[in-house]
Design goal:
By secondary structure, the chain is an alpha+beta fold. The protein is 21% helix and 28% strand. The radius of gyration is 16 Å and the shape is globular.
């Protein structure tokens, strides 16, 4: 196997189509483990990705320039973090989406 050159960076609007492609490819794999009621096709649309981007930051892992992993990070809102409220606002984040496409022998 060749050497891996992985880089992680924030994704922008121009990365949306590639991100949705990775998300949907990963969803095909894990769909076999979920109840049918939990599976939707596609898992993510470009409009859905853009909507999610309004409240969270998308990051991508690139292997030799190809997007292979996507994660969404959403920062805490004091209205949604009781009993901590303002004490955690902007300092607590939730990983909302994590997907990896073609992760090697097990992918």
């Amino acid at each position: 196997m060749g050497e891996t050159q992985v880089m992680v960076r924030a994704l922008g609007a121009s990365d949306g189509l590639a991100a949705v492609t990775v998300i949907n490819a990963a969803a095909e794999w894990y769909a076999e483990f979920l109840p049918a009621s939990e599976v939707s096709e596609p898992e993510m649309t470009l409009d859905g990705w853009a909507e999610e981007a309004r409240r969270m930051t998308w990051y991508g892992a690139f292997d030799t320039g190809i997007l292979v992993g996507v994660v969404g990070l959403e920062y805490g809102d004091p209205r949604r973090c009781p009993p901590f409220g303002a004490a955690v606002a902007g300092r607590v984040a939730a990983v909302r989406q994590t997907v990896v496409e073609n992760a090697g022998p097990c992918g």
